[in-house]
Amino acid sequence: MKFKHSITVALIFILIILSACSKEAPTAAATDPAKPGASSAPKDAAASTEPITLKFYNSSGTFTNTEFKTFIADPVNKKFPNIKVERIEPPTGTTPEDFFSSGQIPDIIYSSSSSHRKVISLGVLLDLNEYVKKYNFDLTRIKPEMLSYAKELSNKGELLELPFNSNQHILYYNKDIFDKFGVPYPSDTQMTWEQALELGRQLTRTENGVNYIGIDAEGPIGIAKNLALPVIDPKTGKSLLSTPDWVRVFNIAKQNYEIPGYIGKADKYVYGRDEFMKDRNLAMRPTWLANMVGPLEELRQQGLEVNWDIAPVPTFSDQLGKSREAQNHTLSVFTKSTHKDEAFQAIAHILSDDTQRILSRNGRVPAIINPELEKEYGADLPVLKGKKVQNVFAVKPIQEHTSHQFELDINKFVTEAAAGIAKGTDVNTAIRKASESIDKEVERLQKNQ
Questions:
Q1: pLDDT band at 47 (very low <50, low <70, confident <90, very high)
Q2: pTM of the complete model
Q3: Which residue stretches of 25-159 are H helix?
């Protein structure tokens, strides 16, 4: 009996020593994330394995159902088999105010610059700082200009949004229109606005009853993105339209409108996605990647393909080498979500190398720092096969400006100024009228807060 007891004691002692050794000598991968086997991804949630459905709401921006499935639903469900992500699709025209006042409870909120300030003002976004710490999420993996923008959205130190992808600008062009009129395609070298407008002049003409438009520079609001210009002074709340840079912007728009044949019937002066994709009478369109690549792919799936390609977006002569400001598409967690941990874990996985690679291969520029992913850009998207995708990265995007809380409310006055210039109003008069209207409207909005 004493012999058996001695063996038992010895075995227990050995097990204690082995256990201590295993705690004191973790694997190299666990201690050094730079070594093989290490992971930059945050630790997985110690959440319930019961089936969970996360609701996804898009507050603004183009985000097709194909993109939602490819970038969000499928990767999250593959990583977390118990989690399904379903998209909430409100009726067309529903504003964020309408949506949240209706009582619906999403878990993940997708936003772009056309809704960031509006959604934040509604107080519906969770501060993610706690979850970043809780799950050891490495913020240094996110591109600095994107993370900086996200942090600047709050003046209280909150992190209300995490960048999802960098929505950059490129110049789309319809090769058939260039071929029709024997005009060389845009160069892979970035053009100045003067060069782009001259090229557009050669393509703006009417033939067989079709009014072909050489280029729509996207008006003052679009052109201002070359300089990341705010419309309202963030400190004073006053209009900035009379500044020299804004005057430069309006003058480029004026030159665009003055191209013979540009102004269409009923004083039409705006030509966008439909004219490029469906009517196919717009030769060049500088705009966001996300605004066109996804819809062009869906059009291709319907058997309707446009003969198009891409070039670097035009800019001012003293800004060559830079693109327009990159728009931050972001993901957030709703304050009233009953699955906050799972929602954050889903977002963290969407920002993993694996999922960001899926984004890149399907036509969106990753939010994370990984040059290898950019080399794979567009590889899995049929509509980008044979396109000059290297031109997406030919010039460097600039950081998106942090807009005033009322900027979206007063952009209509910038649009009115553009319409006036298209009809012949001089730039100084249009700017003066718009500035007066902006100042009055900001004052009114401040009083009604």
A1: low
A2: 0.80
A3: 28-31, 65-68, 74-79, 96-101, 116-121, 129-134, 144-152
